[in-house]
Amino acid sequence: MGVFSRRRLAAIALVATSALLSTTACGGGDEAADGGPVTLTVDVFGQFGYEKLYRQYEADHPGVKIVERGTGGNLDEYSPKLTQWLAAGKGAGDVVAIEEGLLVEYKANPQNFVNLLDHGAADLKGNFLEWKWNGGLTADGKQLIGLGTDVGGMAICYRKDLFAAAGLPVDRDAVSKLWPTWQDYVRVGEQFTAKNTGAAFLDAATNTFNTILLQTAGNTTGYSYYDTTDKLVVDSNPAVRQAYDTTVDIIDSGLSGRYGAWSEEWVSAFKQAKFATIACPAWMTGVIEGNAGPDAKGKWDIAQVPGSGGNWGGSYLAVPKQSRHQAEAIALARFLTSAKGQIGAFQEKGPLPSSPQALDDPAIVNSTNAYFSDAPVGKIFAAGAKSLKPVYMGPKNQAVRTEVENAVRTVELGQRNPAQGWTDATNNARKAAAK
Amino acid sequence: MVVQVEGRPPRAAKARGRGPAREHRLARLDVRYSPYLYVTPFFLLFAIFGAYPLVYTFWVSLHDWDLLGVDPTFIGTQNYTQLLADADFWHSVVNTLGIFVISTVPQLLAALWLANLLNRRLRARTTWRMAVLVPNVTSTAAVAIVFAVLFGREFGMINWLLDLVGIDAIDWKANRFAAWTAISAMVDWRWTGYNALIFLAAMQAIPRDLYESASIDGAGRARQFWSITVPLLKPTIIFAVIISTIGGLQLFTEPRLFNSGTNAIRGGPLRESQTVTMYMFENAFAPHYNFGYGSAVAWLLFALIAVVAAINVLILRRLGGGARKGDR
Fold this sequence. Notes:
The structure holds 2 protein chains of 2 kinds. In chain A, β1, α2 and β2 form a beta-alpha-beta unit. In chain A, the strands form 3 sheets. Chain A has a 5-stranded mixed beta sheet. Helices cover 49% and strands 10% of the residues of chain A. Chain A has helices spanning 2-27, 51-60, 75-88, 100-107, 130-135, 160-165, 172-178, 182-194, 205-219, 238-252, 264-271, 284-292, 326-337, 339-349, 356-360, 362-365, 377-385, 397-412, 418-434, and strands at 38-43, 64-69, 95-99, 146-148, 150-151, 156-159, 200-202, 275-279, 300-303, 315-318, 352-353. In chain B, β1 and β2 (73-74) form a beta hairpin. Chain B starts with a helix and ends with a helix. Residues 1-10, 12-16 and 322-328 of chain B have low confidence and may be disordered. Classes of the chains: A alpha/beta, B mainly alpha.
């Protein structure tokens, strides 16, 4: 007994010591700071379309190697990780992508990021749409945290084969004419559903809700859950209520496939052609291509969004202060967010440029997307991009949005009726904002 | 034990001169203190990786602490009072206890039954014994992802099978009890074999002659199991229950990966399967980044585990106590 436990103790001690050693080894894993080759880590989520740009940059800058992490990942999983890295002072990449809805929260603690204005970024102002540039600035305008990558101009992506099966037109101009307003969109959906194609008209009510909200808010108040004085206005902003009511119409007409956005089922539903339309910000085209796979090439097309305009999403690139290679990282971020970089990303995965020069570039204007039946994506997305009306986002935008969209989801699943759902949305939003 | 007996210096040494006396003192020091030295590595590691985080978490829980913020403000027990009145927190406690009960009870019973089977004379016994452990060595993440797909609403195999026997599809993720059941299935798949092996080891330590005498007295297999095996396994069962309690109440990976997509950390639109650890994560990290509040959740979870473990031990003592008296 005594011998056995001693041996076991020794084994435990050995395991523990080696664990300790390996953690310290991880901590010291950085390569030499000067002289030697530099490896820059870029943290992203979803599809940024930088692969070719990295290779080009590496060719132009011998001694720089670029590694991207998080490609194809979910924003919901990416943002807590990034926050933990920032809080721990260790672990974040040299360049990190930040979605606009989360940027507002990071801006409250700008000490975690390099002030790009200290590195001559002020000259770059003209390279970005004005509101996109301003979005990267802290409230006092003294620190620039991020350089804009893309904006999320809206459209509706639809499956032609399912439209044909339901006896609807398949040509993109004809489809666009079907739905000048969201009410028309609901009516078309009802026609589609009546034909029992075995597919739903749209993927999930939450995605459509967010699209309608951002569009309505952009066209009216200019803010969504918070007003510009950072007061929570979920229950008093008519844009929120209007988007909610329209979404309830969609749900009541049975148009939604009720696939939880970004879930495994949602991904499967793309593959199995289980819904016919999806609210489609420019960056969504890359997501669709990834989820629906090469087999569905040429079966998708892009039509205009009901209503007009609207912006959903779009990101920034920032350099955390903890980066050991700040100068190199800033140079890379500048390259990736330059007009040229944005055009390259657009051509690869479809995120719409936030640079007016890029938006005017023939490479964008005349571009088509082979996956989406050669749809003139340049014309569809870029045309409206310069007149996009941004929506102001308040300090706890993400937490509040989560609560409101969850309420929409409970109505969609039939767990709550629309009135209860609205009460939940406003109450839970208030609670979340106070946390 | 052996070490101590051998290391004890002979008594006669006392009578000798100065030199040996010093040696003697050293030997006594060795006897008295070296055991502490031997156990030090554990306590050192525990202090660094166990005690310090525990105390630090408590310190954090007394603050209004934004994860990215610069200077947290001390707010005393405010996080705790707020938490005790937080309906979502209690909802997650009920979820955790619910999943714990419907996973642990069948799991330990099945483990006991499996162990009893494995304890018989079987062909290729070792193979069977190793086979029950296989689920335990697969990665939790892989298990959770596969089960999440099996329990899918539209494309899941379970619903397809239910459909074959004429039962309507169940939305496993948006129905509280269904979600608990699905997660419990995952937990049980993973841990039943592990507990069975622990029970088996204890069973093998039970003297064979007890069974022999019992069968001479006319006791059948079932009677032997309940009157000999189970009472003598009591310490092991208590151990298994406590370990399952700790694991069950800290359940995170299975329910987290069972819910995919946006806000998976909420465990469903109405928090159907959000456990306490998920609630802690939701508050300490995305989307709230309220480190102080999250730490308070962690401490209340600690208290909850202590209470539930104590209740378990009390119940088992009472149950086992009666059986033992009858046997003697």
